[in-house]
Amino acid sequence: MTMSGTGKARDWQASGFTLVELVIAITVLAILGGLAVPAIDSVQRERLAREPVNQLYLLAREVRVRSMKERRPYQIVFDRQGFRASRFFQPYGGSEEFEALRTELEQRAREQKMIDASRARGIDLSTEEVDLRQIEIEEGLQYFREYEWSDDVECSLRFWDEMQWVGLSSGEFRRWIFQPSGMCEPLRIRIEADGAYFEIEFHPLTADIKSERSWVE
Question: What are phi and psi of 144, to 5 degrees?
Fold first, then answer.
């Protein structure tokens, strides 16, 4: 032991961690790491399970805005494959109308590709004046979004005038209509998967989520 310049004793023994302290620190870190891994895994499972709910919510908001902007009704339809959004065409059609729409859009895409290629070579195939309203209408006709359920998902719907839930696994085809006023049909939807359950009610005035019951294992 030596004396400092102030006259106080100072111990020159090394002030590093002892072996016991290191063991304790490593043990604490291991425990904290073991607690963190399940928590992260739980968050990841919930995020994946909630994806169809989030996608449907975002699509409902987008469809509502389009309907109000274009002053035309839009729709989201549900079946056992998933859900799709488009402008509302006919009230009594089935899934075949979307197959026809998909075929038409593919044809339009091929035609547009030819037009773009011609313009790249300096050839303009358009001879009519540009009508902004017609462009908007055409864009609406070409609007098509779809989302497919994963294999383990079961979906059921219940509209405002229905007393019981209607499952889609049996081949049901249901429409959710959005009016130019911004209103939509009151809708409840159940989405069930392995270890997850969501029951969502959408607000008919805003298409926001009005209430939710859910759990994820």
Answer: -160, 120
Distance between CA atoms of residues 195 and 46, nearest Å: 10
CA atoms of 47 and 186, how far apart (whole Å): 26
Give me the amino acid identity at 155: C
pLDDT tens for each residue of 54-65: 999 999 999 999
Torsion angle of the four alpha carbons 95, 100, 106, 108, in this order, in degrees rounded to the nearest 10: -130
Q: pLDDT tens-digit profile of 128-181? A: 544 444 444 455 567 888 899 988 899 999 998 889 999 998 888 898 999 999
| Closest C-alpha among 170, 155, 162, 138 to residue 76 | 155
Give the pLDDT band (50/70/90) at residue 182. very high
154: exposed, middle or buried (C-beta count within 10 Å: 0-12, 13-18, 19+)?
Answer: middle
**Spatial contact of 176 and 77, defined as CB atoms under 8 Å apart:** yes
pTM over 0.85: no
